[in-house]
Structures are given as structure tokens and as C-alpha cells.
User: Fold this.
Amino acid sequence: MSAKSVLEADGKAILNYHLTRSPVIKKSTLPPPPHNSPPKLASLYFPEDVAPESVLDAAETTYPWLLAPGAKFVAKPDQLIKRRGKSGLLALNKTWEEAKQWVLERAGKPVKVETVTGTLRQFLVEPFVPHKQEEEYYVNIHSLREGDYILFTHEGGVDVGDVDAKAKKILIPVDLKEYPSNEEIAATLLPDVPKFVHNVLVDFINRLYAVYVDCQFTYLEINPLVVVPNADATSASVHFLDLAAKIDQTAEFECGAKWAIARGPAALGLSTAGSGGKVDIDAGPPLEFPAPFGRELSKEEAYIAALDAKTGASLKLTVLNADGRIWTLVAGGGASVVYADAIAAAGFGEELANYGEYSGAPTETQTYHYARTVIDLLLRAPAREEGKVLFIGGGIANFTNVASTFKGVIRALREVAPQLVDHKTKIWVRRAGPNYQEGLKNIKAAGDELKLDIKVYGPEMGVAEIVPVALLGAETKVKEYGEA
Ligand SMILES: *[C@@H]1O[C@H](CO)[C@@H](O)[C@H](O)[C@H]1NC(C)=O
Ligand SMILES: *[C@@H]1O[C@H](CO)[C@@H](O)[C@H](O)[C@H]1NC(C)=O
Assistant:
């Protein structure tokens, strides 16, 4: 297990989507609710070389609700900073104009939080939820050897204080058959909470815990959790205003698609030339595990993040091990998860150099820049006796034109072909999707012309199959593309 913090925006998106979908452990207090509407999460990244004003202008197009007349917002950095309220990094009840101003004063600027200095680049803007102090609660779930603890206090908010001392606790044993009854949960966690919200809160806790398990969280804290009664105080609505979460990164194979779908454009209510809501291996983007506050992205990661910010397509790159010998150039969030997992399963996790993906129909030029960056990093890693491996692949794209993106990849290969040969790089291509035949034919021809050590496969080769074939010399019946 590798517990990694996630962005607040991602944690919220996952909760919002899966709260009504993850299976509850036992029958809850309320009938299954309708699915939540897409969450209003304006997640804003401010790259070094882009004017912050233009990021904010673009946000108005992506998130039209920012311009709703009279709307009020919360703005805050989303960079794994604890106790933002105490550090003056939380703006509440602001109009969009005020929120913009607040963000502009901080975006791209260094700030010292306790002992750590970092640059503020990632912000979250959300609707402000007016509520009273006494409607603020605190809930925390964390995993220990003996099971998962759920902590709850009826006094949440910035000044929650010593939670360990004052929170009510319940242990969920490892054997979920012993999951507590609704009555036990209410009696243990909610003695200080008005009776009329018990049903709603127990249901929320049951569902929250279901998501925690289903999506392999290892830590989840909501503070404040706001419970606003309806007009006649018979029921209430629940809002998770501030959230910190860790997720088990090694669960990517099992959960990658769940994390991705909750963060896809359809789930977030964003208009794109999207996938019509269908879940497939191209569902992206993959969940990112941001660096701790104060650790800046490497130059290459920042460059790709900047490219990504400028386009509707998705371009993601995380360098896991700059000295690694196995590199991936993969289209689609789902596929990148499958590759990473297959490489780890083959016993090469330590050698996996990068993680990332391109999807959402990037142009030929964008793909070229993306590919060039990955290949440059590959060539910068120390040469190895056993050579290097580059996987060029993806699932079955529906919207990314394989022929055109492969033109970008081929251009990148062409520029550094002799160096790739020097580094004894074996290239394994597997791709399907619109115009894949043309793409595969071209990359095969270019590889042969450039004397690259390249193998090219079409959809007959499984994404998970090509990895053991490449790394372990496993047998395969699948013929290379174009072979009789
Ligand atoms: C939000 O700000 C407005 C003034 O802009 C004020 O009238 C209102 O009371 C504030 N709401 C809360 C909940 O603080
Ligand atoms: C995506 O492509 C697959 C395979 O061609 C097809 O079965 C599926 O219907 C497509 N999905 C969408 C949303 O177009």
C-alpha cells in the first residue's frame, strides 16, 4: 500500500460521484438517493509561463457558473496545505470579481506555511454555502491495523481543536460482516447531534464509508461537514466543504477507472467533445498524486502541465524515477493505469520511469511536444547494459485520431533515432482507434527506415499482454501488425 494525498478537488469529485454508487455495507437509513448533480469545482492551475489573468478568463468559459449573477464563492489553494484558514489562505463569501482578485494576488507567488515555502499554483474555487456555526461538523475516517476508525464531532470548523480528545469514535472491524448497525452508528457518533438529522447523517456516514472502501481511500477528513436543515427541520442537506484525503496509489489497477470516471468531463458537468458518457479504457484523466507542498514540479513536468493547461486535450506527465529504464507514451487514462500496473506486476515497478497519458484528441504538434519530452527524458536516463524500453500505446480511442497523433510521435522519433539506437531502446507499439491502421503502418515504416528496434501491434494484442511479452519475453500468438 502506498497512501498518497490527492487534490481536494479530486477527492470531492470522487465523493460526489461515488456517494450514490458505491455499495453500502449494510442497508442504510434512507432509500438510495438519486445521483448527485455534477459538483461545482473550478480547479485552476497557474503555470509559470502563462498570465494568471488568462487562466481566470479561461475558467469563465469552462465553468460558466462562476458568472452566475449574485453568486458567492470560496477560493483557496489546493496544494495539500493544512489549516489554510489559519494561514490566511481561505477566502469566503466572495463575489467572482473578489475571488479573482484574491487568487490573482497569490497565484504564482511563494508563500511560507509554517516552516515550508512553496509556490501557489493550484487553486480551487467553489460556491459558498452559507450556514451557521452550529451546523458545522467534523468527520474523519482512517485505517489502522485493527480496522477503520470513523471519528465524528459536532463542533467542526477552523477551530476544531484536539479532535482525538473530543471526537466520538467507532471502529469498523476488518471483517465487514461486523459493520455496525445504523442504531449503533447514531448512538456512538451522534449523541450531541439533533435527532432530526440522525437519519441523514447516518446515511451519509454509511455512504461515505462505502466510497472509502470502494475507492480505496486510506484517510479522509471533512472539516467542516455542513448539515443544513430544511425549512421545517425534518431533514437536512449535507455539504462537504473542506476535504483532505489519501488514496492507496497501488490500488490503481482495481480503482483507476473509478477514480478516472468521477473526474471525467461528463461527471464534472463540463462540455467537451467527450465520450458520450460511455466508460471505456480511454476514460481519463488518471488520478494525479501531487507533490507535497513546497516540492515544485520538474522542468519537464511543468512544461507538460503548461501544454495541458493551454488545450482542451489532456496531457499528463509524472516522472517517477528519472533513472528508470522503462518509459511509457500512452494515450488514455485507463490505458496508462493498465500499463503501469502490468509493468509493476511483471516485477519492474522500480524501473518504471514515468506515468502519464495524452488523450482528448491532442493535435499532431501537441503530441509531438509530449512525445519529445518523454523521449528526451528517456535519453537522459543513464544508458543501461540491458537497454531501455519505450511503450507506445493506448486502449481503443474513440476520439483521438491515431494516424494524426502518431505523426507527432513519428516526428519525435525521427529527430532522435540514432540516440535511441545508441541506448538500445526497444520500442513496443500497441494501439487501436480511429485510423489506427494508417498510424501503425506509418510508425512501422518509419521505425524500419530509422533502424529502430520496434514491434508494432494492433488491437489483437492486449494492453496487459504486451508488457510481459516485452519485459519477460513471454510467448504470444499475436502477430505483429501487417504480418500475415
Ligand atoms: C456574505 O457577505 C455579505 C456581504 O457581501 C453579507 O451580507 C452576508 O451576511 C455574508 N454571509 C455570510 C454567511 O457571512
Ligand atoms: C467507442 O468505440 C467502440 C469501438 O469502436 C464502440 O463500440 C463504442 O460504441 C464507442 N463509444 C462511443 C461513446 O462512441
